Amino acid sequence: MLSNLMIEKHVRAALEEDLGGGHDITSNTLIPEDARAKAALVARESGVLAGLMVALSAFSLMSHEFDMIVHAQDGDSLKAGQVIAEIEGPARALLSAERVALNFLTHMSGIASMTSRFVQEIEDTDTDICDTRKTLPGLRAFQKYAVSVGGGSNHRFGLYDAILIKDNHIAVAGSIAAALDQAKLMAGHTVKIEIEVDTLGQLKEVLESGKADIVMLDNMNIETLKEAVALVDGQIVTEASGGVTQETVRALAQTGVNYISVGALTHSAPSLDIGLDIDA
Fold first, then answer.
1. Nearest Cα to 54, choosing from 30, 77, 70?
2. Residue 215: Cβ-neighbour burial (10 angstroms; 0-12, 13-18, 19+)
3. Catalytic one among 99, 117, 140, 156?
4. Among 147, 82, 109, which Cα is nearest to 271's?
5. Which of 134, 140, 156, 184 is catalytic?
6. Which of 74, 76, 98, 196 is catalytic?
7. 30-81: per-residue pLDDT in tens?
8. 99 an active-site residue?
9. Fewest 10 Å CB contacts: which of 97, 98, 132, 245?
10. Where do you find CATH 3.90.1170.20 in the chain?
């Protein structure tokens, strides 16, 4: 999912943003040009690691002289105090890349850790956790990668790879039937059609049309969701969405829905505390 080209492009842009004109004024003032340093990436709390290669690329893009020893890989469960990787090389470059590396690493690991907690809540059910398009501009691929590392599934990546008919589309199209008719007419056989509903009446319209592959059951309470799943009876794929939390996800999964989409995985996951410790 994350190509080397994509990683380099985004990490280089982050370094350029941080360095401005190309200088780390603090490190260049305090540190001799030929000084070398050794450091370790260390987990300060437990969680799931994601984005290690992205983080390490920040150092390698600053200098080709770094030696790195990797002790963990994406998807590993971390414990507080665990050494993730060791890095040795030019001190100025090490300090200049530190924040960019940690920004990617802590953010992506935070997403993976939060996703893992949601997945564990429902691991004995047949429901999958998936993400949404509620991502930071420019970082969608990184955030969705972190979701997959945490055990979640990826929803559509953009407006281009699936049809998702939401309430505003229906309002403009005129009706559920009209929206589905047009979608079926224009979509190729490889393109999935999903439609959002928030009432059982709307769901019945969708089922009667026979033109949707997936139905998003939006902001339904547990009892209504149970009725909806029973009404669908396996005819199409079901997805529950709307304000899902770790406290509510299990009850939602127990209704029998196929997927639960959680926007919070990418827009509200707290960073995982990981630090860079210099070996003084």
1. 70
2. buried
3. 99
4. 109
5. 134
6. 196
7. 999 999 999 999 999 999 999 999 999 999 999 999 999 999 999 999 999 9
8. yes
9. 245
10. 4-113+270-278
Give the C-alpha separation, 108 to 110, whole Å.
5
The question of whether 126 is a catalytic residue gets the answer no
CA 181 to CA 212: how far, in whole Å?
A: 10
Judge if pTM exceeds 0.85.
yes
33 catalytic residue (yes or no): no
184 among known catalytic residues? no
Percentage, residues of the chain above pLDDT 70: 100
For CATH 3.20.20.70, list the domain ranges present in the chain.
120-267
Q: How far apart are CA 39 and CA 37, in angstroms?
A: 7
Superfamily of domain 4-113+270-278: Quinolinate phosphoribosyl transferase, N-terminal domain (3.90.1170.20)
User: Is residue 28 within 8 Å of residue 261, measured between CB atoms?
Assistant: no
C-alpha distance from residue 260 to each of 118, 180, 211, 215, 263 (Å): 10, 23, 22, 12, 10
Q: Is 12 a catalytic residue?
A: no
Homologous superfamily in CATH for domain 120-267: Aldolase class I (3.20.20.70)
